[in-house]
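Annotators were shown the component list below and the corresponding predicted structure, then asked to write short factual statements about the assembly.
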Amino acid sequence: MKRYDCLKLLAPMVDKHMFAVTSLSSNTAFWSSLRLEGANFLGCNMGLCIPFALGLTAAFPDRKVIALDSDGSLMVDTSSLITLADVNPLNFIAIVFDNGSYARMGATFTTRRTDLEKIAQGAGITKTGTVRSEEAFAAGVKHALETTGPHFIVAKVEPDKERVKGDPHRTYGRAMREWFMDAVRHHPDYKGGKKGD
Amino acid sequence: MKRYDCLKLLAPMVEEHMFAVTSLSTNAPFWFNVRPQGPNFFALNMGLCLPFALGLTAAFPQRKVISIDSDGSLMNDSSSLITVADVNPLNLVAFVFDNSSYAFMGSTFTARRTDLAKMAQGAGIPNSGTVRTLEEFSAAAKQAMASTGPHFIVAKVEPDAGRVAADRSRTSGRPMREWFMDAVRRHPDYQNRR
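Structure shown to annotators:
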């Protein structure tokens, strides 16, 4: 199963008022080419994708928030799963693309003994799953979007061979953040912030 | 089950050349009272007890290294369980005293949905379990000390009511570290690396 194929299946299911948050590297480049509009926060540093998305669930409790994380990133801070389980946000969907490698720099722990779904269950998240085919991925995501969460889906994918060049203004740094904040300010659920927000 | 009673049972099982590492707060003074001698490193800051013990297992592969951690501390960096599972140190015995509270400051996640033994299994440590009585604790500790690890034992204990006084120069800061390094240098397995 390829990550890009999964994301292509996911993108049409994400309506324009949902939120998406991605980890660095492939998730960011792929997602930015598939969902150009809407509130996307791209390229969270390692360990920060799920925590950032968790914050958004509290700010926008009536919208689904989708965290597109990866194995290397999540394992930097698996304790975030404990916080996630404890806060128990009903509108949260975490999808972890597990390619068993740190970009092209070697294998991660998930190729050996570690099972991220089991860790999430131990943390206290009950709605968890591991998917290995595009059919299972599509079904898992569809179910997660239609039911209350928090959902935690591990998608076992091949290491990425293809590359997509994301527009740096949309995927990185201050320009990306301004795109995101603009989408937040135009969001129908946005209640306004203080001046300068 | 009380933490101090568990540690009193554990101390006689720990031979003089085994290593012990404790987290902050209650574990440090309690352990000092039951095992004042030998290579003990006390009062590691939150999240650092298990990683420190893991390093010792590599330095002293022929000796058991006992990590005496607590729930609040371990949850500061539960990813250390993944590293432990991956390194797979045969001589590590990790205890987590889970009183489900941050000292006297409120309850932790383990009072609600989180199961640390299950997280350890997910990380890849198959010898993981939870004990709730002194008999279970004693049996699990004995079994862990007598077999190859890594072992991960969660001991569900009451919040600690009593306090135990301990010599602070032995349980914290630079004097503690010097006691520890002294014990390391005298250790029969120590090979002077400089």
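Statements collected:
1. Chain B has nine helices and six strands.
2. Chain B has one domain: 3-186.
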